[in-house]
Structures are given as structure tokens and as C-alpha cells.
């Protein structure tokens, strides 16, 4: 993710997780032809990718996390808000100058 944000890699890292039930996988058959497949999208990974790619499509005040423990959700939302604020302030800083001499 950091390499993508710095422009060192052309494509973002994948964050989706695919699970296949009742059949061998991977094999020659594409996942769309499997009987039962599940795509899991970790919200935290998607939000980090959107934030670092500049495609921020969420409001920091309304992150739709589905976490069973409410205290954990609150802490996680606060951490994302702090990370977003740090990232925004980092984007505004002028590039670091090498020391003279």
C-alpha cells in the first residue's frame, strides 16, 4: 500500500479475500464457475486503500463498520479519523530538504 501511494507500483494491492466451499480451488476453473464462493472485503483495508489512492468516498464521521464489540468499533473509528488527519497534514507539508553541507 505504501509503495502504491508513493507511485512505486502501478496497481493497488488486492484486499478482497475469496473463499471457495465444496470444491478444490485454485484449479483450472475460474472462481465465477464455482458452486459456492464468498468474497470478503475487509472494511479497514478498503478504507486505507481509498484514503491513500485519493479516492476517499467515505466521511470520517460515518464509517459503516460492522463490528460486534462496540468499544472496539469506537476505537477503530477514532484511529481512522486520526490516521486520516495525519495523512491530510502530511499531504500539505512541503517536501523535506536535504541538510546543507
Automatic annotation (TrEMBL):
Residues 1-53 form the Interferon regulatory factor-3 domain. GO terms for molecular function: DNA-binding transcription factor activity, RNA polymerase II-specific; RNA polymerase II cis-regulatory region sequence-specific DNA binding. The gene is Irf5. GO terms for cellular component: nucleus. This is IRF5 factor. One of its GO terms (biological process) is immune system process.
